[in-house]
Automatic annotation (TrEMBL):
Superkingdom field: Eukaryota
Main location class: mitochondrion
Alphabetized InterPro entries for the sequence: BolA (IPR002634), BolA-like_sf (IPR036065), Mt_Fe-S_assembly_factor (IPR052275)
Name of the protein in its database record: BolA-like protein 3
Signal sequence interval, chain numbering: none
Cellular location(s): Mitochondrion
Lineage of source species: Eukaryota, Metazoa, Chordata, Craniata, Vertebrata
Pfam family name, one: BolA
PANTHER family noted in UniProt: BOLA-LIKE PROTEIN 3
Family the entry assigns: Belongs to the BolA/IbaG family.
The keyword Chaperone belongs to this UniProt entry's keyword annotation: no
GO cellular component, one term: mitochondrial matrix
Gene this protein is translated from: bola3
Primary role: Acts as a mitochondrial iron-sulfur (Fe-S) cluster assembly factor that facilitates (Fe-S) cluster insertion into a subset of mitochondrial proteins. Probably acts together with NFU1.
Keywords: Mitochondrion
Length: 117
């Protein structure tokens, strides 16, 4: 990888970093992407907790953005339970649901919304 980095221009190296952080890898000049249908154990655990806490969630996506080690997650959840609540109140509900799991994390990104229908 070091030899590869030395031969790449600054722009190409930046693009490689972006590809790598998005689970896309450049191998021998070909772009390959990790199958995103497989969940890590941590992602599955968080999904199960949130499905139980927000049974009417219209949309739920949990992504381990720490590279698979479980230190940081990004959560997108759309639920009617958030209707009439400010964003901070919505996020507090998610934090309360994940109280135990959060203790072992470095960070958590939360995106909440109310279904449009």
């Amino acid at each position: 990888m070091l030899a590869l980095k030395r031969s790449l221009s600054g722009t190409m190296l930046s693009a490689l970093r972006v590809f790598h952080t998005n689970q896309v890898f450049v191998v021998s000049g070909h772009v390959q992407q990790r199958c995103v249908s497989t969940q890590t154990d941590g992602e599955a655990r968080i999904v199960n907790i949130l499905k139980e806490k927000f049974p009417s969630a219209a949309s739920l996506k949990v992504v381990d953005i720490s590279g698979g080690c479980g230190a940081m997650y990004e959560i997108h959840i759309e639920s009617s339970e958030f209707k009439g609540k400010r964003t901070i109140q919505q996020h507090k509900l998610v934090n309360e649901a994940l109280k135990e799991e959060i203790q072992g994390m470095h960070g958590l990104r939360i995106f909440t919304d109310v279904p449009k229908h």
